[in-house]
Every structure is written in structure tokens, then in C-alpha cells.
Design brief:
heterodimer, A: 280 residues, alpha/beta, Rossmann fold, 6-stranded mixed sheet, 4-stranded antiparallel sheet, 10 strands, 33% helix, B: 284 residues, MetI-like fold, 2 domains, two-stranded antiparallel sheet, 11 helices, 79% helix, binds adenosine-5'-triphosphate, binds magnesium ion
């Protein structure tokens, strides 16, 4: 089925899609409830509920512009800086709604790290890239800093490559190394969850493979939510997949299930079309 | 005309205009030097800093107070306007709600377009009487500093604002996502990237401040003296030229050209200093 014909199925979108029972019983680290976002008068995505399962890899797929990045930004409140953003609904983390005004944003962002599409180490030394956030989060002791930097770099397999040049500028690293550095920089803060917005889309296939393996290694220790356009990547790494679609000018959650189910026997025809159309 | 030929003509025209600007610059320098040559040749340089008065018609050429006056007014204005301008820009970029920022920006844009003589006039009407209440006569170094600050502040703020806007947004996004506070982001991410641009902007304004004439002349009192406090009157090099050029003759005239030459040297040294600072930045 080609992507063109998928539009004929739009009317078949079930109005209040709910994931099958059972999947909901898993503990979710992040629980998105009836969340909707609009900029000015333009709705970006309709109210959606989505649990992000603890210590599993949750993938979010869907066409460009359906609001995947916006959803991630909302979770760590990056939308605060877009003063035209209007948010409704709730996002529960540790039984607290992160959208409350009283949320401690610094500790929220320490708990939930975000990796962006384009790796962006700060234009300073590799060591300084770690020290700046670590010091901000209260790590002042020199030995402790060293230890955390080393552990984080080892976790992403970058230690052997950079241990002798921690004083050099981080911008001199290759794209793949920079992305691993950004992941390490987040891991050093000992977060509980990682949100990754197309972490491999700016990388070559080999660097992509390295990052994918890294993500699989992190599974079990961290709750991961990864946005990807690469369906085979989602297939390789994800335990659960949420599928969003662009419908009547705004995004909508269509289906959420085990990765197997989404890729092999999705219940919604749009999902079927999307996963087939793009894997052929 | 063939495209090749057209290119050649354009090239010639460009060369011609480039020559005009270079030649006119040399002409100004040459003119300043030859006109002040008379005094340079007849008076030992030590007299400019060791004489005890400025009586050019009687052979006393105490230029030092005016050099100091110019520098003090300029440095004072920069010391006030740099932090205020930069903090205002930070406020409106990173803290203020956007409607407030855009109103502020419009206002500052208007302020930067007001001719300096209007600021001078305002200084005479408001600042001088106000200062006079604390300490007579009111026309003083401080009045000059305040008026000059108001003249350069809008531009410094606008320049700082546009430089902060150029800081890589993705770095800021990453920094926010890492849970860095605004204060840390401003100090460690934004400032290091903005430093060079700010330096250039500030030096350009310093050059403008030291060259400002009319507004400063209106409020500074113009007494030739090394001021003992900010409440005492001073005369700047630029005021000196403006005040006396109408009737200056012979060696007096030559002394005024020397004032101009000194001013140019000071500005030139300012530019040299920034270049040095920038190069040192680059080397790091
Ligand atoms: N600050 C903003 N103001 C207004 N509209 C915005 C803003 N940020 C994003 N949008 C709009 O929101 C919609 C969703 O954007 P978003 O980046 O979340 O999509 P996406 O699913 O991540 O797409 P992609 O796969 O291309 O990254 C787009 O139509 C975009 O134009
Ligand atoms: Mg996106």
C-alpha cells in the first residue's frame, strides 16, 4: 500500500483509541494524560494519553509535522520558552504533574534528559561540557566530578577515544562522537528517563549503529522515549511503539502497542499503511 | 556592452571610489599634521603637559586638562552605559515577556535616533540645575557623563541585543534541557559567544563618545582644569576646538589643530587596543 492511498483511511480513525488492556498494567515512568498543545490558534496535537513505560524503550513514530518533537518538548517544559504555546492536560512523573507551576524545572530536567537531532556540545572543552551541568546540579567535589565524567564517557563507549584529550574542544569531535558526548553529558546527571528526538538522523550508518547499540545497552536502567523516522530502527530497538498521524491539520495519536503488534498486526488501517508503505 | 567589458568597468568604478575614501583619509591626516606642524615644531612636547595654563595667544599650551577631560567624560559614560546597556539587553532577551520587550525595543530605537544636541539641551534644562542643587555650578564632569551616557546607551543596548540574538539557539536549547539556570546560561553559554561582538560594539561607541562635541560643550562648563571631583567643570578636546575656532589665529589655530590630532591618536589607539584584545581571544 502506498502512502498516497492512506488518506482514504482517515475516516476510519477510531475517535477515542485506547491501547489494549494489559499493556496499561506496566508501570509508566511518564504518564501523559489528555495532553494537547496549540500554538496561538493552531492545534499541534489533539488530546492524547500515552504511558511511557519505565525502563523500557518506547518509540514514537509518525510523519513529519505531526507534533512528535513538540510532545517531547512539552514533557521537559521547553515549551515554556515559546510564549505562544498553550497546553492542556497532564503529564505525571513520580505522581506529580510536571505542568504545574510549582514544578522544580531544574530537577525535572535532571530527571528527564533530552537528546536532540543535531548533536550540540557547547563550544568548550570536553571536560567543561560535563562540569558545567554537573556543578549546576550540585556536584562540586573534584574527584567526584572526575569519576562521574569518566563513568558517563565509559557508559557511551567514548572514554577510550577521548580520555587523553578531555581539555580539547568538544566541537572537534565527529558527529557520532558528539552525539555520544551529548548522551554522556545527560547520563552524568543520573537521570531516570531519556527523551531522544531523532538522535541518529544527522549521523552516518556506522555511527547510527553505535548509538542504537548504546540505546539497547541503556535499556533496563533508563526509561527511554525515542522519536524516529527510521522504522527499521524502531523495529530494532523499541519495546513499545506509539504511532502519531497528521490529521486535518493537526497531530493525533493513532495507535500504541507492543512493537511486534504495531509492525506485524496493527489494528488501525493507517498504521498498517504507514508501517508497510515505508518499509517496502 | 559585453558582460566581460561591463565587469571591467564596474571594477574600475569600484576602484575609483575606494581610492576616494583612502585619499580623503590621507588628506585629513596630512592637513591635521601640516596645520599643527607650526606648534609642534616651535613648542617642546613637554609644554603640553607641564605648562600651567591654556593661554594659546600668550604661548601657554596646557593641553593635558583637555585630554584628561575628554578621557574622563568618555570613560565615565562608558562605565555607566556598558553595564546598563548589556543588562537591559539581557533583560529583554531572556527575562521580559515578549510584548514588553517589543515595546522597549521600539522606545530604544527612537531614543537612538534623537540628535545629540537635543540631549545636550535636556541636560542644560534638567541635569545641570539638578546637580547645581547638590553642588554649584551644576555644569560639570558629571553632567557631561550623564548626558553622554544617555546618548550612547540606546545604541549600546541595541547592539548588545542584536549580538545576543545571534547566539546559537541550539546551544541555549541544550543548556535549558540540561537544567542549567538562566544565570548560568547567560554567564557560560551566551557571554563567551557574545564577547567579541560586544567588544567591537562598545569600542565603536567609545569612539563616538570621545568625538561627541556639542552636547558635552553645553553641560560641562568648559573650564580648562584637571577636575578635583565629578562636580567640577571640565573642557574636552572637542569643545576646545568648537569654542575657539571662530577667532583662533596663527599659533593658536595651530594649537587647535593639534587638539584634533591628539583626539585622532586617542581614537586610533582605542581601535588598536580592541584589535589586540580580539587577537588574544583568537589565540586562546
Ligand atoms: N514555536 C512554534 N510556533 C508555532 N508553530 C510551531 C512552533 N514549533 C513547532 N510548530 C509547528 O508544530 C508542528 C509540529 O512540529 P514538530 O516539530 O513537533 O513536528 P515533528 O513531528 O517533530 O516533525 P519532524 O518529524 O519533521 O521533526 C509543525 O507544524 C510546526 O510548524
Ligand atoms: Mg521533530
Amino acid at each position: 500500500m502506498s502512502a498516497n492511498t492512506t488518506h482514504s483511511h482517515l475516516k476510519a480513525v477510531p475517535e477515542n483509541y485506547k491501547a489494549p488492556p494489559g499493556i496499561d498494567k506496566l508501570p509508566a515512568y511518564i504518564n501523559i494524560e489528555k495532553l494537547s498543545l496549540s500554538y496561538d490558534t493552531q492545534t499541534i496535537f489533539e488530546p492524547l494519553s500515552l504511558p511511557i513505560y519505565q525502563n523500557h524503550i518506547n518509540a514514537l513514530i509518525g510523519p513529519s509535522g505531526c507534533g512528535k518533537s513538540s510532545l517531547l518538548n512539552t514533557i521537559v517544559r521547553l515549551t515554556d520558552y515559546q510564549n505562544n504555546a498553550k497546553i492542556k492536560g497532564q503529564i505525571h512523573v513520580n505522581n506529580k504533574n510536571v505542568l504545574d507551576d510549582s514544578t522544580d524545572l531544574i530537577s525535572l530536567r535532571q530527571n528527564i534528559g533530552m537528546i536532540f537531532q543535531k548533536p550540540m556540545p557547547f563550544p568548550m572543552s570536553i571536560r567543561k561540557n560535563f562540569e558545567l551541568p554537573l556543578k549546576e546540579h550540585g556536584v562540586k567535589n573534584k574527584d567526584e566530578l572526575e569519576y562521574k565524567i569518566e563513568t558517563a564517557l565509559k557508559d557511551v563507549g567514548l572514554w577510550d577515544e577521548v580520555s587523553t584529550r578531555l581539555h580539547q574542544s568538544a566541537t572537534q569531535l565527529s558527529g557520532g562522537q558528539q552525539q555520544r558526548l551529548c548522551i554522556a553529558r545527560i547520563l552524568a546527571l543520573e537521570p531516570k528517563a531519556l527523551l531522544m528526538d531523532e538522535p541518529c538522523s544527522a549521523l552516518d550508518p556506522i555511527a547510527t549503529k553505535v548509538i542504537e547499540e548504546l540505546i539497547l545497552n541503556l535499556k533496563g536502567k533508563y526509561t527511554i522515549l525515542i522519536v524516529t523516522h527510521n522504522l527499521s530502527q524502531a523495529k530494532r530497538v523499541a519495546d513499545y511503539v506509539a504511532f502519531m498521524w497528521y490529521h486535518q491539520g493537526h497531530g493525533k495519536l493513532i495507535e500504541h502497542n507492543y512493537a511486534d503488534v504495531i509492525f506485524n498486526s496493527p489494528s488501525n488501517p493507517i498504521t498498517t499503511a504507514y508501517v508497510q508503505g515505508l518499509t517496502e | 556592452m559585453s558582460p566581460l567589458k561591463r565587469d571591467r568597468y564596474l571594477h574600475l568604478v569600484l576602484k575609483f571610489f575606494a581610492c576616494i575614501s583612502i585619499v580623503s583619509l590621507f588628506f585629513v591626516i596630512f592637513f591635521l599634521v601640516t596645520e599643527s606642524w607650526r606648534i609642534i615644531e616651535s613648542t617642546p612636547a613637554s609644554k603640553y603637559i607641564l605648562d600651567d595654563a591654556w593661554h594659546p595667544t600668550e604661548g601657554e599650551f596646557f593641553l593635558l586638562p583637555m585630554i584628561i577631560g575628554s578621557l574622563l567624560v568618555m570613560i565615565g559614560a562608558m562605565l555607566l552605559s556598558i553595564p546598563v546597556g548589556i543588562f537591559t539587553a539581557i533583560l529583554w532577551q531572556f527575562y521580559a515577556p515578549s510584548w514588553f520587550s517589543s515595546i522597549l525595543e521600539r522606545i530604544v530605537e527612537v531614543l537612538s535616533g534623537i540628535p545629540s544636541v537635543v540631549y545636550g539641551f535636556w541636560g542644560i534644562m534638567i541635569i545641570v540645575p539638578l546637580l547645581g542643587k547638590f553642588q554649584a555650578p551644576g555644569t560639570s564632569l558629571l553632567a557631561g557623563i550623564i548626558v553622554l551616557t544617555l546618548i550612547v546607551l540606546p545604541t549600546i543596548t541595541l547592539v548588545a541585543n542584536s549580538i545576543f540574538q545571534q547566539v546559537n539557539k541550539l546551544h541555549i536549547q541544550n543548556a535549558i534541557a540540561l537544567g542549567l539556570s538562566r544565570f548560568t546560561i547567560i554567564c557560560h553559554i551566551i557571554f563567551p559567544q557574545a564577547k567579541r561582538g560586544l567588544l567591537t560594539g562598545v569600542i565603536l561607541q567609545a569612539g563616538r563618545a570621545i568625538g561627541e562635541t556639542l552636547a558635552v560643550l553645553m553641560v560641562c562648563g568648559n573650564v580648562v582644569q584637571i577636575p578635583g571631583s565629578v562636580f567640577e567643570p571640565v573642557r574636552t578636546l572637542t569643545s576646545n576646538i568648537a569654542l575657539e575656532m571662530a577667532y583662533a589665529m596663527d599659533i593658536h589655530r595651530s594649537a587647535l589643530f593639534l587638539s584634533g590630532l591628539v583626539l585622532m591618536i586617542v581614537v586610533f589607539m582605542l581601535i588598536l587596543m580592541t584589535e589586540r584584545m580580539k587577537n588574544r581571544e583568537n589565540a586562546l
